[in-house]
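Review form for a predicted model. The reviewer records the input and the model, then writes brief findings.
Reviewer: anonymous (R2)
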Amino acid sequence: MAERKPFLLRMDREVLDAVQRWASDDLRSLNAQVEFVLRRALAAEGRLKPAPGPATRRGEGDRRE
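Model under review:
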């Protein structure tokens, strides 16, 4: 498993609340949701290889364009 490094993140209350609701809807912790969103954005921009295996429980990583 990759090393985990703590990181302080400040964000607007409205954004935080929206991400928390999204995390709850997807049965993830807030931390896991933030990492999920960042990894998906990085992969979409070609800055990080997608993780092997299913991307989400809903199969969002299986989209073909």
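Findings: The first helix runs from residue 13 to 25.
Further findings: The two ends are 31 Å apart (CA to CA).
Recommendation: see findings above.
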